[in-house]
Each structure stands twice: as C-alpha cells, then as structure tokens.
Amino acid sequence: MGSPAVVGDRRRPARVGIVAAGAPEPANPNIRAFVDGLRDHGLEEGRDVVLEVRWARGAATAIPALAAELAAVPVDVILAGNNNVTAAARSASATTPIVMVLGVEPVAAGFIQSYARPGGSITGLTNFPGTAMDGKMLALLKELLPRLATVGVLAQAGVGTDGSSIDDAARELRLRVVRAAPVAGAGDLAGALTMLKQAGVQALYVVGGALIYAQRQQVAEMSLQHRLPGIHFSADYVRAGGLLSYGPDLRAQYRRAAWYVSRILAGARPAELPVEQPARFELALNLGTARALGIVVPNSLLVRVDEVIG
Questions:
Q1: Which of 17, 188, 193, 235 could serve as 284's disulfide partner, Cβ 3.0–4.6 Å?
Q2: pLDDT digit string (tens) for 215-224?
Q3: Cα 63 to Cα 90, 124, 126, 268, 308, distances in angstroms
Q4: What is the pTM of this model?
C-alpha cells in the first residue's frame, strides 16, 4: 500500500480505488464529497491522490471482478460504499486497506472484531446504528399512513441486513411484511415492485443498497406508478421523487471517509482506527409525491422534517 514516504515526496500520487454501483457519472455527488474531504486534509486529487473508479453499471455480479481489478492495479486503499464492495475487496486482497462508507452490521458481517478496535484491514463508517433503526423507520411510515397494515420490503442482495429485526419491528406495529426477491441488478426492480403490488402491500420499506440507490429515480417513478408510498434510508431518494426518508447524510459520510483514507495514507493501521456510527440522521419528505398519492401529512410529522421537497 501507499506509505507516508511515497505520498510525502511526490514520487507518485497515492491510488484510491472506488467501486461505484451505477454508470459512469463525472459529477457523482458522493465522490465529489469524498474529494472535498480529501482536500480538507491536505490531499489534492491529481497531485496527491488519483481516484481509480470502476463502475458496476447496476450489476451486483460485476463487483467482485471490479474489486479484483483494483487490487491488481494495485491501489493503496479501497473506498467501499456498501457491504457488497467490502466483501469483494476483502476477497480480492487480504492486505489492501478498506474504508467502509456505509457498512451494515460490520461485526456480524465479519468485517471487524469490534467498533473500537476493528482488528484487521477494514475500518470506516457504518450507516446502521442498530436494529432499532428498522422500528424507527417503520414507525415513521405508520405515522404517515395510520391505516397501514401490509408493508413490502425491497432490499439488495448481499447488503447484510438482518431481516429478523424488520419482522420484530413490524410485529410491534401490527404490520404484515411481504418481501420481494433480493435485487441483484437494475433489471430486477420492475419485477420486484410488481410482485409486491400484486401481493397486496400498501407501502414500501426500501432497505436499499448501492445498486438500488443508483436506480432511485426509477424506484420513485415505479412506486408512484404502483401507488406505493415508501420510506428510504437516504434523502437522495426523496429528492428523486420518493416519499419519505430517514437516515444518515450520505455526503457527510463520504466526506468523513476521507479522514480515514488520509490517516491510512499517512501510515495509520486500519486495525487501530475505530469504526464510527453516523453523527446525524435526517428526515426528508416530498410533499409533491404526498399530494400525488393523496396523502395528508400530519403536522406532528411535518414539524420534525429536516428537508421538505416539493
């Protein structure tokens, strides 16, 4: 991997590998936030750091080969947006440092030994503060839709979500859960949403994953077409036309991940850099989508919204 001497004496810029879920996107806002974070720590793209970005183009099956390609470059560190990439990067190289941006249950997934002392080649951030998150998100959906009885779960294959916590939360709220087959690529979305609609669900809990996130515009459009209000983990879904979201600020996560990369490039060991949970969660609501679905938003919810769209 890159060492302080390599970066410091400018013999070559350090190489940071990124596997992105979607199609090539020069102005990707999350990558921009990461670059801004590097600059915060004195690292300029091009001068100090070169980004080696590989695009999965909506296919989960492409991720292992892309991670192996980055390991063969070789890169000095891999930025892993989700569990799929983290697992693929670890399989590709046992020694290349990996910085998680949105790790889901990283201890249970076997990525780290503990949050305080990761103990291996993986560190970074998680987007999952615990199983209580499922209860919080389903409770928000129920507050918005008091007559809700059946909720459909849309999740990406391999994201590492514990389905039992969703079932437990739903049971507390007297909700029936219907799951679509895990999404492995963009082509699976239409069939998954059609299946959930035909199964009689009244709303969606979009657990997500990077591949679903990359198709968030399509998720919003198809959800509206099927008249299925949904709650999502990122405000970016709401900005794309989704109804409601509760989760960490993705830009802040990517910007903070740059601190980990800067520390590793300065010689720190991932094993000794504690994994962080999100500092802030944001609640976002698309009023235009609510109107289109005939939903009246209660004032008790509206006053708590951090970002209102439409």
A1: 235
A2: 899 999 999 9
A3: 12, 19, 20, 27, 35
A4: 0.85
